[in-house]
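Extended Data, panel c. Modelled sequence:
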Amino acid sequence: MMDGSTFENPIAPASDAGAPAFDLNVIIAIFRRRLRLFAAVALAVFVAVVLFTLQQTPLYSTQAQVMIDVRQEQVTDMNAVLSGLPADSAVVDTEVEVLRSRSLAGRVVDQLKLDQDPYYNPNLAGAKGVKAWLPFLKSTVAPTAANDPAAAQRLRERIVDRVLSGLTVRRAGVTYLITVQYTHPDPAEAARLANTFADLYLTEQLEAKFEATKQANAWLDTRVADLRGQLQQAEAEVQQYKIANNLLSAQGATLTEQEISGLNQQLATARAEQAETDARLSIARNQLARGSNGDDLGESLNSPVVQQLRKQRAEKSAQVNAMAERYDERWPDLIKARRELSDIDTQIQAEIKRIISNLEAQAQISRQRTGSVAGSVGAARGTLAGNNRAGIRLAELERKAESVRTLYESLLARFKQTTTQQGIEQPDARVISRATIPTKPSAPKPSLNLLIGLVAALGAGGAAVVLAEVMMAGLFTEDEVERRLGVPYLGSVPLLSSTLDDARAARGLAPPDYLLNKPLSSFAESLRKLRAAILFSKVGESVKVIAVTSSLPGEGKTTTTFSLGRTLAASGANVVVVDCDLRQGAINRFLPTAPTVGLVEVLNGAATLDEALYADESGAKVLPLTKSAYTPRDVFGSAAFQRLLAELRQRFDVVLLDTAPLLAIADTRILAPHADAVVMLARWKRTPVKAITTALSLLQGRGIFLAGVALTQVDLKAQSRYGYGDAGYYYKSYRKYYAD
């Protein structure tokens, strides 16, 4: 910060590396400093809470409990149109929001006719609040609400808002229980509203299911009727197509298929019969070809005629043989018998020929029959091929009809189910505890309100203290000077009245005069401490020329400079106080007579230094300014002033320069480089820190040595109460050393 001769970075904050992060004594000091503010804010907040509690209307709260029922009674073993609520956490939370919904609150309003209750409707006579003391508003709002739909809607929204303001719905932990609580000035009304919310919630569930079932029935009825017509049309198209394409069927098969099946059986039979007749004819021909007379033919053996003829022949042959043994070959009867036997053989051969001819005829018939049946089968197969091609379209029509039939039957069955279910719907919740009329109010709770008010008051007071400290413009203690300004702290000059037990004793008494009268006072001691801090601010170097300045006027700069001069003189130093404030010249008020010559006259050569010096009763010399001392010329940058300052260095031990405020006049910035040390004064608690830092920044980079900052007009009594971190905090402990 300082290298012994040059002032650098005056506004850089001091290092806090070794400082504790939290100092309770500092907090206590701040609190004591702002005790009045804290007490005023805290008292105001507490009184406001008390008044609010006293004017509150007693409110009564009661609650009903609703449980989401995860067990459903199954009267019929059919699926419901609107399924029950699943038993998960999100559904329970959703039902809580349903209970808080504006639609349910609107149903409560309609159910209980709350729009006719002045407590909810501000347009009715007897309404509370602003309507109670502005009755003329009712005549303007009510007709508008009756005639204007928008106004009526706004009124209803306000009524619903008022109803919802007393409702509290919450879930009991992670259970399926929902608590419906209502708060109202009337305990019976609170219970009625809580129960109505719970009942209408269940009613709304039933109505939702009933409406869903009703809509489903209506839709299913319409849809079934439509499908019935579609099914009839589809089946008619199938039958018409069958007729048009000769695809008539019986017992699951088309007539052509049945015909082919019969023809195939007939063809097989005909072919078997043909094979049989051909075989019999072939065997008979083969036997005849081998020389058989036909007696051994199978057909002849089976022929009753042949059998009869053979019987006759056997008898006749026996007769011939018998007669041949008895008679001669020419015996007429024998001859006749042999002719008859020959006739029988002829008849047998004729019958055998007839049988063979019959076999040939049967074989021919079988072949013709087989050919005819085969031809019919071929024709039927051609017809079947055409039918099969037509069957592709028929199958499509049948599939269409079948799909319509399936949908029709399923919807018809569902329609019968929903029709059966109508009227037996059950809610998904039930009321397990109805609200009862409360016997004591739930609000206000005076003890709780007072506790909250106390906490709020303390918090508001603390916030006010913090805000005041944040917005604090001035400096209080040594720690604040070094922390916020980053410069050395030289000391403090107390307010004279704060050092006396009787503040009235300081009236009319100038601090420099009190300094002479009370050299052992705390005020005098503070000037001696300031003197020592300034003189020893430059380690290893002497300080002779001291420029005393401030950032703003009215900070006690002239009084402090003159008092410091008297303190130096009292210690035996040869000191001169030079008034360098060309605009004000405030040191003159400490002189017994108005000066006729001064600093400007000496610089102009109109008077000598000895002629312009005034001797103070303390032994100090004063180089004042006359009333006409102001000049537009640059006085302090002239060679004459430098020569004068060199002469003052030679003649005096200490030269005190009372300069103008830095922010007001540029003279001090010109004069400061010629001083061995610059002392910045700041009024305790009043001078803004920003003003001080701005003034210090004007001294940067000019080879100026800043001895430090001193606080003036310090109230020692206040400082001893809350100025922790400053020597004045312990003023009561060492005050006995002073003779005020």
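The chain has a mean pLDDT of 79. This feature is highlighted in the accompanying rendering.
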